[in-house]
Specification:
The structure is a homotrimer. Chain A is of the alpha/beta class. Chain A has five helices and 40 strands.
Chain lengths: ~350, ~350, ~350
């Protein structure tokens, strides 16, 4: 990939400030000021990184129309409407080329692998070495199943989905189209249900349901999604889940919800559409959460949220701004206590 | 599985209110009010779900004797002593049939697998494809070892235990009878011990012990239990551990303790019998916890608990009710501060 | 391993109090007072365990010069400058013998395994059964790759590194020398980046970078480290990471930093050298943390830390002592509120 800045500006609907005959051939990071950045094109979108634009030695920086420089900049600039989406466009073009090359080789069935004679395989799939595909399982077309994955019995995987190395999918689970499951994901392990017995021990409660991932779902590395006791644990269309997340049995998550790393969602919780859960958030069981709810990292929720589109923080959660107001005073508590003592002395 | 309601009531020691000749052939969820529920039998145990009983189109609902309807119910009812345990009984009957069919096929050694000629295999076991069984390892009878599991050298696995796909058990660890280890579990990785050196670097402290799971232990998907520095990390009989839990080196957990997802237990902590740890609880190292202690989700503990059977909340933990009392006032802190300011002005 | 106490004291530069002809042949734990401890040598370093030295039946206990017994001790004592490092020395000697025996067998390539003909393998390596090594990948000398590991295309692994069972390394990542990756680790999965679309759905942002582990890095079981969007996610030399930790895309961690279990580090955070992060700590994205920072367990950070060598606690974090001061009063809030009410009544 080699472009003159003029070509690049054309591609991005932007305009060059500086030498538009210069050539760039790689993507760079604006805060990488020590490495050789000759030939690199970076972008400035997050204001936190503004100071780097005055130091970078990158050949070009993509900036938004709204940006107003405070100091001189030695790099050439490409002014665009929105620097972040312009850069994303570039990444996509670059990925389209590199992924096409990479995936072109991921076709066919490597040996040894274990494919049940009763499994149904779609056209144009990849099955890596040491992968296991059980009885009555249906794999759609263009699906990639990486080495050492386990796909149990009676599973369905929709067209164009990617199952990375070492994913484990228990029997009866359904994966939609265009899903991506990263390495080490476990789908359909038994939910955590135990009935206490009179002698203090616990008896397993059978977990007879399954897991359904709708289309366009992404699941991060080593995340676990348990099968339902009865019915299905459901992840709605377009929902994106990060690494090391726990989704308990019978949970239902809506569409286009984004769940960051290490979130834990206990059994039978229902989460609406278009929600955002920050890292390490904890959701208690049997809770219902309205559409568009947002949770700051490490928040803990143990009650229903019925009003949509609000932001929450703390454990247990308060409304985001209320939590911050209280927390400001939490920091001042030693002073506040002293002031109460002073008042008492004056009585 | 097809029953008339009369047959079902007989099985559950209950009585039918409605048409006892109706037939049910599947288990349903009471809060699933949109799907076709013809032929479904649900149960109502959690009062949170009461409103659904007035809407459900399920053929029958199992209810407890103590339930008093507030509105008319269109479904047939089966009154029993305890709806939850009656439903569990049903699940078990259903599972007994379906699991028997499922496990009937999980017998024998699939190819290719790697079994050391010095390993000892019990009768009637299943070894899935791509499983690895190391030297001097002893596998009890009726054990199921799913594909892509790794059982290192000198491991023991007791009778009737189930090792799901991709479990990794390091050398020298001992798994009891009737244990279940879900996919992706790691048993016996080296504990996190490093001795600081004068130059600021760290030297690994050798981890020479092992992990012992006693009988009837369940371990959830992708949970990790580290081997002891010396001696053993021990999980007591009947203890149930959920997904993505971390158990550090030399931890000792008692019997019939229940540990929810994403709990972290640091090295050398000792947890008693019959404890309950909510999701994402953190336990510091070298801590001792009395029998019957209960922790709300996200609690953090950095001191011994010597009085048994108490409930705890917060980080660091307070007694459950004390935490809630303080937290109520935390929410009011901006108001409380203003009241102190008002008092000061009046001075 | 059999030593007289005299021999042991010689090895540790210590002196025996008691019968120096007694023989020890195993390492014991001082708090293990019920098992047979005949022939065991323990150590006392953590003052929390002092009470056990008056009860232990171990043949010998290693104690520091500074220790002053409060009661009679029945075991023989070995007095040394520092009991902990003396014991570590013993462990190392013991491990040197046992590991040498254990690893002596981990040489060669087990069958079946999958090694690309275009991969380059160093001398003296171990490749376990069902391991996968992709195209153009370079494995250094003395490297051990355990069964069921996946090493993608164009990966480099430095000399003497150990890749335990079931580790997954995506294409293009670089692992330094003398690194240890425990079972279930995932290196190089795609970072969690999604661009919101006008219809509420999300589009994947390509993740084109890689992961670089410098030399002497340890990674605990089931930890996940995502590849960078562009450039590299970097783990500095000598840094030690525990189990189930999440490291997001484009994170950079310095040298000799220690990160306990279940910590989550969001994308583009930069963590300095010689930091210590307690268990379950959460670090927000695009944050920068000064060298030598320490975080108590469960702390949450959403702002830069620019002053080095400070300790932090709480979520969001305060300076360690400030948090404790405020938390003491948090516990007293019901009382403080009542005092304000009393003052108001007196107005």
């Amino acid at each position: 990939m080699k472009f003159t800045l003029q070509q690049l500006a054309g591609l991005l609907n932007g305009r060059v400030e500086g030498d538009d005959t210069k050539i760039v051939d790689k993507l760079g990071k604006i805060d990488e000021t020590t490495l050789d950045q000759e030939g690199a094109v970076c972008f400035l979108a997050n204001p936190k990184y503004e100071s780097f634009i005055y130091q970078t030695k990158a050949t070009a920086v993509i900036v938004s129309e709204t940006f107003v420089p405070k100091h001189p900049i030695s790099s050439n600039l490409i002014w665009v409407k929105d620097a972040y989406s312009a850069f994303t466009t570039l990444l996509e073009q670059y990925e389209a080329i590199t992924k096409a090359q990479y995936f072109a080789k991921k076709i066919g069935i490597e040996n040894p692998s274990f494919v049940s004679p009763k499994a149904q395989l779609g056209e144009n799939i990849y099955v890596g070495a040491f992968a296991y595909i059980g009885e009555n399982t249906k794999i759609g077309k263009n699906v990639k199943i990486y080495p050492q994955s386990y796909i149990g019995e009676n599973v369905e995987i929709g067209d164009n989905s990617i199952i990375y190395a070492g994913v484990k999918i228990y029997q009866d689970c359904k994966i939609g189209q265009n899903c991506t499951l990263h390495a080490g994901v476990v789908i359909g392990a038994e939910g955590f249900g135990f009935a206490p017995q009179p002698d203090g021990s616990y008896k397993n409660i059978p977990q007879l349901g399954n897991v359904i991932l709708e289309d366009n779902v992404n699941i991060g590395a080593n995340t676990t999604i348990d099968r339902a006791t009865i019915g299905a644990t459901i992840i709605g269309k377009g929902t994106k889940i990060d690494n090391l997340v726990q989704v308990g049995h019978n949970v239902e998550i809506g569409k286009n919800t984004v769940i960051a790393s290490q979130v834990g969602i206990a059994g039978s919780a229902k989460i609406g559409d278009n929600c955002m859960l920050g890292g390490q958030v904890g959701i208690s069981g049997h809770i219902s959460i309205a559409n568009g709810s947002k949770f700051a990292g490490q928040s803990g929720l143990n009650n229903n949220i019925t009003t949509p589109n609000k932001s929450w923080f703390g454990s247990p959660v308060l409304e985001y701004k209320e939590f911050l107001k209280s927390y400001v005073i939490f920091k001042q508590l030693p002073d506040l206590k002293k002031r109460v003592e002073d008042l008492e002395k004056k009585e």
